[in-house]
Amino acid sequence: MITKGNGRGQITIFIIIAVFIIGAVTLFFVFKESFTFAEIPVSIEPVYNTFLSCLEEEIFVGISVLESQGGYMELPDFQPGSHYMPFSSQLDFLGNPVPYWYYVSGNNIQKEQVPSKKDMEEQLGNFIEEKINECRFDNYYDQGFEINFNEAEVDVNINENKVDVSLDMNLNISRGEDSILIGSHKISVDSKLGMLYDSARKIYEHEQETLFLEDYAIDTLRLYAPVDGVELTCSPLTWNANDVFNKLQEAVEANTLALKIQDGDFFLKKEENKYFIEDISVKGDVRFLNSKNWPYAFEVNPSEGDILIANPVGNQQGMGILGFCYVPYHFVYSFKYPVLVQIFSDNEIFQFPMAVVIQGNNPREALETTALELEIPELCGQKNTEIQVNVFDTKLNSVDAEISYECFGTKCDIGKSSSGVLKGEFPQCINGAIIVKAQGYKDTKYQYSIVEQGIVDVIIDKLYELDVDLKLNSMDYNGKATVSFISDDDIKTIVYPEQKTVELSEGQYEIQVSIYKNSSLTLGATKREQCIEIPQSGVGGFFGFTKEKCFTTEFPSQVISNALSGGGKQNYYVLESELSDSNTIEINSQSLPTPTSVDKLQNNYILFDERGLNINFK
Fold first, then answer.
1. What angle do CA 439, 441, 447 make, to 5 degrees?
2. Which pTM does this prediction carry?
3. Has residue 480 got a pLDDT over 50?
């Protein structure tokens, strides 16, 4: 129960509180100039402005580094590539390392290293914390200023069109009677880092989902390299693998630069090829780059050394039954190269590289998870036996070489010898083979079973480059020919006269020379009837009875423009002394009758197998 006295006491308290609040508000407005927080004295203001300018400059430096290095200030750990996968974890672009967002490591593992926006903010913050202590105030020290500050703590927020930085650091500036302590510093700079990064992520995710870069690579491969097909001719088709690779590099470089991004607001110009427009909605302009000076890997099978050869069908014995010649070919390529993606707006460029991988004429599989392994052989993950491999030439000089181990068709990279010696972990295998490759030496396969630790000595043969001097009927010949040097484990073929050198090592060879001359031989149109057994219809077919059905195949007429007109075969053991003491291998072959009919053309192939060659080293 409240008495009258108590009620009066409570009212008095409320009145006192109200008077206090009104008085405080009145005092604030009357003396508000006296309550200005951290107002910077005029004499000190230039020093603080210099500090803010230094802070802003370091922010822009950090942003530039992030944009040029694919979103990284601190680079991920470097991982080297290999002869199989040429990509390291970074692309060297104009001397600047740019981490790949996607690549395949030297041990054949797909890897992603895409930074998040949070990662970028943390790295930029760490950069500013380190660099802010390097701001120079020498001129102000000379004027009598005292400037002191402690450790900094930075918080960064990357937005679409600006970067906000909040710096907590006690900065004490004083001179004479003027002094100020400022603990919090905020600055916002105009930058499209966030927008460019978001666009980069969209392009990267589109590539991982669609593999559009690999699709362009497949089209380029089929357009600029022999992949598969058939040509009507009676002479072999040959391509130089190095020439094919050079054309591919040039085509990839040009076609990559031609790629463009089309979003909803993009209108195709008349002179632009729609084929090169990729439909992705991003902000900013986009450029795709490749250079033939960047890491590449190129492999093609089947091949004979640096030559791709497709042999004709129909010019052997029995060709009269077939009635025409044709050359089928099918080559399988593995092709890998980097593409650098640049997204730019005004003066800012954000860039990141990706690896483009073609395996067996097909694009790689789309990446679904981080560090997804390709088909890494289980054998190569079980290297548990130490083997020492010593590599020598035939004169017992040490040779540095790349060493791998093969077991039942699976090959594992082991490493490179140093001063001719490699100590490495090998997988265990019965009847496996140590494979040794060294520049200037013949690839060597040494059969060796690994069940326990051991030491292996491998001797490899040196390769000698010789000029090839081809003669026909003892006269110099500079027409069209193919010259093959066939050993038990290798075939080297040159296309003469475009190629006139060959690398040989000591060993047994079958040397073959095929000389082709212009011909006007015409094979007329032919028909051939072929009969096959097919099941009878009705009840007879139920009991397994068959009937003969015949059909006729028509072959068009064909003009043979090049026909076999000379050459032969010769078995010859090449001594290392002949190779080391000579500069030229002279091969003399005999001509064959110019074919004027199908029968005479067939006869030339019979004579070719019987004709020998004269071999001389000079």
1. 115
2. 0.67
3. yes
